[in-house]
Amino acid sequence: MIRVVLPTHLRTLAKVTDEIRLNIQGTVTQRAVMDALEAEYPMLSGTLRDHVTQQRRPFIRFFACEEDLSHWLPDAPLPELVANGTEPFLIIGAIAGG
Amino acid sequence: MSEVRVLVGTRKGAFILTSDGNRKQWEISGPHFAGWEIYHVKGSSVDPNRLYASQSSAWFGQQIQRSDDGGKNWEPVGNKFVYEGDPGTHQWYDGTARAWEFKRVWHLEPSLTDPDTVYAGVEDAALFRSVDAGQTWEEMSGLRGHGSGPSWQPGAGGMCLHSIIFDPSNPNRIFIAISAAGAFRSDDGGATWQPINNGLHSLYIPNPTAEVGHCVHHIAMHPARPSVLFMQKHWDVLRTDNGGDLWREISGNLPTDFGFVVDVHAHEPETVYVIPIKSDSEHYVHEGKLRVYRSRTGGDDWEALTNGLPQSDCYVNVLRDAMAVDSLDSCGIYFGTTGGQVYASADSGDNWSALVRDLPSVLSVEVQVLK
């Protein structure tokens, strides 16, 4: 199971209080995580990536294993520690603006 | 006795104020959607417990929330706003071509006849409609596609479709307004549109009487006079008596004719309200005094309404969707400020009091009367 931590506002939107666990078949990538997240929580569609382009929204950042993965290609395999559930995949709203 | 419900959208959440018909004691609920910009909250006139809210943030984009119990509970519905076909470009501030890009929903207007049908005015300016209570949205592309779209430019606040008015006597007639393209009308239910800016004069654009390009801030109509509309423009207050075919200026003796809001008394179609704002760069009330101006003659002759409003050291703005009227016999007027106050008058503007003082900056105010 993949562990995903959402930013506070999206936890409220998705009505979850803790980290989310997703079952992903195949290679665990950013795209796979987003697809699984949006399938499980449809209200998150459009909040992390653009509806049409599927590009990560500019103020959304991805972190895991103490590394910024935001600029990794969407189909690049995520670190093994994320794929095996040891480390969470962190989704963070960029600290920008007021 | 009737109940009054005031729906307030702010930069950090929505608030719902309720009172009985006396409008003296108010209960406040909120913030709903805490931390999000709530550009607009509006209820269906068919089912007043059906509310729609535009919830957005720069980080997480757009949500549409729907309530079926008057705002006690909410659920997110569809948030996918996709321009039809190849959206092409409009003009950017510097005149260069800029691709249409959805940013947020500025205004929600439920249908007059069906609580599941709701229209959305968005930025970059376009009109969308849902017929399934907000689950899915489809662009009414005849507006952007009628011909002048590529020449539209944003105003300072963005290129937003902020006003949507239905003609209650004609289900096919819709009025909308865009900053900074102008006002438009459809006579076929939104399939096709025409600019209705004849009579507008805007000194700051290359052709002051151009067919499009005017920064209209808000339009308002009394339902008993659907051919009469009032307009607050980036400078000038105007009216039309023929559904927008021709406008004339009615600024008259206003201390300044810049502002954002305009609204009409619920029972007196010739009684109009504006709040003059100092511009072009200040965008707060004139002379440090918060004054609502009322004309009982449909414009030209205006009186200042100040009882209960701060008359010194006040530097707030009142944004375009932040004024509303109720339909009680003694018409109530409501407006919210960028300072977080919501003021109300229960006597057509003669006297005012603050319903609440310390909200986040107010973006919109709507009011419902519940039997």
Tally of separate domains of chain B = 1
Output the number of helix runs of chain B: 0
* Total separate domains of chain A: 1
What structural class do you assign from the helix and strand content of chain B?
Answer: mainly beta
| % residues in beta strands of chain A | 15-25%
Q: What is the rounded Rg of chain B? A: 19 Å
CATH superfamily of chain A: Beta-grasp domain
Helical coverage of chain A, percent range: 10-25%
Mean pLDDT of chain B: 97
Please write out the topology.
The complex is a heterodimer of chains A (98) and B (371).
Chain A: E1 2-5, H1 8-14, E2 20-22, H2 30-40, E3 60-64, E4 67-68, H3 80-83, E5 89-93
Parallel strand pairs in A: 1-5
Antiparallel strand pairs in A: 1-2, 3-4, 3-5
Chain B: E1 3-10, E2 13-20, E3 27-32, E4 37-43, E5 51-57, E6 61-67, E7 75-76, E8 89-91, E9 97-99, E10 104-110, E11 118-123, E12 126-130, E13 138-139, E14 160-166, E15 174-179, E16 182-186, E17 194-195, E18 216-221, E19 229-233, E20 237-240, E21 247-249, E22 259-264, E23 272-278, E24 284-285, E25 292-295, E26 303-305, E27 323-325, E28 333-336, E29 342-345, E30 353-356, E31 362-370
Question: What are the defining features of this structure?
Answer:
A: 98 residues; alpha+beta; 5-stranded mixed beta sheet; 22% helix; globular; B: 371 residues; Methylamine Dehydrogenase, Chain H; 5-stranded antiparallel beta sheet; 4-stranded antiparallel beta sheet
Describe it for me?
The complex is a heterodimer of chains A (98) and B (371). With 98 residues, chain A is α+β, with helices and mostly antiparallel strands. Chain A has a single domain (2-93), classed as Ubiquitin-like (UB roll) (Roll), CATH 3.10.20.30. Helices cover 22% and strands 19% of the residues of chain A. In chain A, β3 and β4 form a beta hairpin. The longest helix of chain A is centred in the middle third of the chain and has 11 residues, at 30-40. Chain A starts with a strand and ends in a 5-residue tail after the last strand. The mean pLDDT of chain A is 94. Chain B is mostly beta strands and 371 residues long. Chain B has one domain (37-332): YVTN repeat-like/Quinoprotein amine dehydrogenase (Methylamine Dehydrogenase, Chain H, 7 Propeller). Helix content of chain B is 0%, strand content 42%. Chain B has no helices and 31 strands. Chain B has strands spanning 3-10, 13-20, 27-32, 37-43, 51-57, 61-67, 75-76, 89-91, 97-99, 104-110, 118-123, 126-130, 138-139, 160-166, 174-179, 182-186, 194-195, 216-221, 229-233, 237-240, 247-249, 259-264, 272-278, 284-285, 292-295, 303-305, 323-325, 333-336, 342-345, 353-356, 362-370. In chain B, strands 22, 23, 24, 25 and 26 form a 5-stranded antiparallel β-sheet that branches. Chain B has a 4-stranded antiparallel β-sheet with strand order 3-2-1-31, with no helix packed on it. The model of chain B has no long low-confidence stretch (mean pLDDT 97).
